[in-house]
Amino acid sequence: MNSFQSKLQRYTNRKFFRYGVPFLLLMVGGSFGLKQFAQLRYTFSKKGTLTPEEAQRFGLDMKKPEDVTLETEFEKIKTIDIDNWQPVRGPRPWEDETLAPVGAKPAGH
User: Fold this and answer.
1) How many domains are there within the chain?
2) pTM of the model
3) Other C-beta atoms within 10 Å of 36: how many?
4) Between 105 and 8, residue with greater pLDDT
C-alpha cells in the first residue's frame, strides 16, 4: 500500500497530471456538454407554421394571406393624420395606470 501512495504522490507532483489532465478532461467533457445544448437548438427550431385551423382552435383570428397586402396596409396608413399629434408619456412603474399628461412632474418632486 505504501508503494501505491508513493507512486500516486509522484504522479500528482508532475505538471502534466496537475494541469494537463484537468485541461483535457475539460475540453473533452465540454464538447459533450456543448453537443447537448446545440441539440436543444435543433430540436426546438423545427416548429412549423400555424395553420388558420390551429389558430382558430387557440382563439386567434388569422386573416387570409391575400387580404393583407402592401397596398391595403398603405391605404390604411394614408388615412392617419401624422401632422397633428401630441406626445403622451406612459405611466412609470410607481405611478397609477392612467396616462400622465405631458409635462407632469412625478409624485414626490
Assistant:
1) 2
2) 0.34
3) 8
4) 8
